């Protein structure tokens, strides 16, 4: 739910209204006060954080903020905080301070209360005062977050210089009163994504509520087992500055026991932080039906063909909303079995939802409305203040990334491969200890 213009609380208010109107899309536990999950993702509310912290924050974009789900026992949470501060120091960052997140714990049911974490927000910045590029700052935060989860069992809904997530094992009506921050008029943003969860393949938990760090997902990823296996298999081949000096401390990329949506988010975030635009990452994971599309633009077709060698489709049914903190959009997978509708108002408000009626809008103020078709993408650039249509998005991504040349080269290489019977010719045994033995190729 973005708006083209200045950040405002009205976006948060509209998003929370839409969330409450999606109550029927979520589920509750036997005690009725425990929800399967609800949450909100938005831009960092800079004005708000400067007002409620008792330490100085650097310029916008030069600090990281997030919420940590810490152990509820004080001794354990203090130990986890100390460990996180050590990880930050290893990355050349310092924890400027911690802020205890105000909550109204009595609102939630017994089941949610029994496993409720302690909520604390760390604020991190360069320990030397140097000005870091935003991508570099977020890459360091990503490594800290992954190590904190692996070493100390601390889950971060988000840890970023761009966005923050408030979520939990809540119903749609509980989210705002549970987190009083969300009612503060200084809580301003240009965009917001909300989600009401109906848990299917995993049990409800505080970490598995949505939105995640880059996406919110309606549907199922029916290929998720294969997708996870392939990600695990290629971990040893990954190479990117994002992974730092000790990538093994960051693995696995896909957290064991997480939901299909969580795994999708982890891979999308990896692709984005490694240097691809968020649109590129989503196109890799949710391609159009391109193989038999005779009239598709050749550059776009080449993009999909090339990337099919790098990433298997994460097939739904799936409707996915996504953001990098500036661009916010949605896409429908090629099966097209989940709805996605949008409305654009004369005052610049853009609403995208899984159904009609999430917000009451005067019909006379709607200047355009429509739906996202299978394989298509709907995108808003909140900085530029414009909507980018599917054809323009994909033409730009295809033109900037491996296309016809790389695709043809790969196809040519495959055609010239020898037959399988000629790949491996055994050598006679060697008496030399240093002579290498022949090794069959790994398919």
Q: How is this structure best described in words?
A:
With 443 residues, the protein is of the alpha+beta class. The chain has a domain of 202 residues: Aminohydrolase, N-terminal nucleophile (Ntn) domain (Glutamine Phosphoribosylpyrophosphate, subunit 1, domain 1, 4-Layer Sandwich). Helix content is 29%, strand content 20%. The protein contains twelve helices and 15 strands. The strands form four sheets. A five-stranded antiparallel beta sheet has the order 8-9-10-14-15. A hairpin with a 4-residue loop joins strand 11 and strand 12. Helix 10 crosses helix 11. The longest helix is centred in the N-terminal third of the chain and has 19 residues. The C terminus is likely disordered.
Spell out the key features of this protein.
single chain, 443 residues, alpha+beta, Glutamine Phosphoribosylpyrophosphate, subunit 1, domain 1, 5-stranded antiparallel β-sheet, 4-stranded antiparallel β-sheet, 12 helices, 15 strands, 20% strand, globular, disordered C terminus
Spell out the blueprint of helices and strands.
Layout: H1 9-20, E1 38-43, H2 46-52, E2 64-70, H3 74-90, E3 93-100, H4 110-114, E4 118-126, H5 134-152, E5 155-160, E6 163-168, H6 175-178, E7 192-196, E8 215-219, H7 224-234, H8 260-273, H9 278-285, H10 298-307, E9 318-323, E10 327-332, E11 341-345, E12 350-353, E13 366-371, E14 377-381, E15 386-388, H11 390-400, H12 404-415
Antiparallel strand pairs: 1-6, 1-7, 2-4, 2-5, 3-4, 8-9, 9-10, 10-14, 11-12, 11-13, 14-15
Helix pairs in contact: 3-5, 8-9, 10-11, 10-12
